[in-house]
Amino acid sequence: KNRNAEIHAFEPNPKTFKRFGCQLDLNRQLKNLIIPVNLGLGDEKTKMTLTVPERSDGLASFEREYNSEPHSTYSVDVIRLDDYVFSKGLRVDFIKIDVEGFEAAVFKGAKRLLTEQGPPIFCEMVDINCEAAQVLRSYGYSICKKFSLDILWTK
Fold this sequence. Notes:
Strand content: 25-35%
Number of helices: 6
Radius of gyration: 16 Å
Mean pLDDT: 90
């Protein structure tokens, strides 16, 4: 058990981020362990439009527009994971990612982290030959275990 461990949780959706903060306020143990970060991750520092369908905040996406159904849009700040990790001098032991099709951009923005530190990565991936999978393979990752659509990648 690492008492110095931290979880840096990135959430670009302002509504979901607020709910997440409320949940942390209810649990002091988690509040001391989890650092919520109200930013998106990608392959460059920029602003992007996040589209959130009314039917589910969990389907929020930088890629999809959801024009045929009720939705909200937010302009959110996006950064590279490399910039965040190395500016803070962090050692990353594990990555869990759920970015609704934006994985390739996130992995490209984490190239230094993934090549130098090589943490295991757990993510949903419908197609193991998609661009995100190709990016991970180019960094020396391979599939360690599949759980339906969820995949554990390791070096």
